[in-house]
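Table 4 source record.
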Amino acid sequence: MGQGEPARIRLWETGGRWFAHVLDVEAFIEVTGTSRERCLLELRAVTGDDVDLVIEVIPTVVGVAEAADIMGWDKRRVITYLDRGSFPEPLTTLASGRIWLRDDVEGYAERWRATHPAPSARPGSRTGTASRA
């Protein structure tokens, strides 16, 4: 980042916090905030308002275990639905396994829950009650 050049920034969220790292500078410059907006405010406090920022937002990715958590399933069920073509295609496959964009899995979970109500929410459901003969 030279005089008059925009500052390149990498921005990501992890563990409920947002982080921004300034690239292409000799010093290590990283700020954090409890929200994306707070993180950007902290970043502006460091860079000043007169610097143009080029921000690369790194999307949050999840593996099979996190996808299962989001769905409320176990990992085997995620793989079963994936093998059947009923689960979003992974972004890629790494040596450690398949990964998805978190937003894709959360969107799928919302659509799934809208079309597959929990057993206790189904009309005529008798979960938790003994059958009378």
